[in-house]
Amino acid sequence: METNETHQTSLRVNGTEYRLDLVPWVSLLDALREKIHLTGTKKGCDHGQCGACTVLIDGKRVLSCLTLGVMKDGAEITTIEGIADGENLHPVQKAFIEHDAFQCGYCTPGQICSAIGMIQEGKAKTREDVQELMSGNLCRCGANRGIIDAIMEVKEGGHHE
Ligand code: FES
Ligand code: FES
After folding, report:
1. Quick check: 147 pLDDT over 60?
2. Containing domain of residue 53, as a range?
3. How far is the CA of 52 from the centre of ligand 2 (A)?
4. Domain boundary at 82, 107, 128, which?
5. What percent of the chain has a predicted confidence (pLDDT) above 90?
6. DSSP line for 35-81
């Protein structure tokens, strides 16, 4: 097999279907950013260590830098661009704004996707649980306290859709 042979891959991103010819080693992150031009998903470490690239795949949070694009043929992917409902921000987005949960904003798309996935997992009961389950998403600006405050508010029902 030719090493640079491409594979036709169909990705459904934020409700739109994209048919891409991908070489097998292209990460989902690069496919999103470079082929589909959705650059809201950030590339931090590109090695699974920072969480900046987190997206939702079939509702579950996934590190897109560690995921091969071709493996997600047919999957339903949600990026930060697809989190809001039209003009209406997602409750997690609203809570991030209210709690000053970002400074430079670089980690924020990944934090928000990760938080939504984490809440859906339903495992976090306490603030410490949230901290632990969000520990894969690093923030170099030290906005962690606001991030956890924001997530706690949504979890406790302070925000409704
Ligand atoms: S860019 Fe994927 S975890 Fe850092
Ligand atoms: S807001 Fe700057 S890295 Fe988190």
Report:
1. yes
2. 7-82
3. 9
4. 82
5. 94
6. IS----S--SSSSSSS-TTEEEETTEEEEGGGSBGGGGTT-EEE-GG
Check residue 6 and report its DSSP letter: -
Calpha distance 109→51 (Å, rounded): 9
Ligand 2 test: best mutation among 53, 100, 104, most atoms within 8 Å of CB?
104
Strand order, beta sheet including 76-78: 16-22, 7-13, 76-78, 54-57, 60-63
Pairing of strands 76-78, 7-13: parallel
> Is 160 part of a structural domain of the chain?
no
* Whether 70 and 95 share a structural domain: no
Q: What is the pLDDT at residue 161?
A: 47
Structural domain contains residue 22 = yes
Task: Give the Cα separation of 11 and 133 in Å (integer).
Answer: 28
